[in-house]
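Running low. Got one?
___
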Amino acid sequence: MERSRLIFGLAFTILLTIVTTPSHCKYHSKTVPVDRLKEKVTQLHFYLFDILSGTKPSAVEIARPNVTTDKSATPFGSLYAFDDHLREGPETNSSIVGNAKGLYLSASQDPANFTIVMYADFGFTTGKFKGSSFGVFSRNPVAESPEREVAVVGGRGKFRLARGFARVKTHYFNATNGDAILEYKATIIHY
């Protein structure tokens, strides 16, 4: 009994010492009221070139399911890594304004309802947003409608704390080789 009181007393003393000892470190936090931050809305318009064919594709398949009867260029369960050019216009000679880098997964069992789930970082290399990017993590039902909407879930640089959406419209698609040119009209809310 005396021994258990001694252990309890020692444990209580150590706990009390830890709880009441002031902590000194060089890190600290500061809470900034949200009402002091001014929200901005930025509209962006550009074209993404997703090229799977040729000797230097911008998107490559990195995984494919073992069992599939789908003979399309992007069968269900296929995972792609991409580093696609963002251009001012749909022409191959239009100015490059940035790159979209990330992954997309072919996520529809029905080839006629081609859908991808994508994670992408849209980074800008020229102009007023040079060095900034916004992130998309969303379902993109490519075959569902001519114009789809994907979610903007974050950003960096001038797009810190970004949220919003991007309307995506297929400008060109080759079902044989998977090459596509996509028009993006993004609405980004940021601080």
Observations:
- Strands lie at 40-50, 59-63, 79-87, 96-106, 116-124, 133-140, 147-156, 163-173, 180-190.
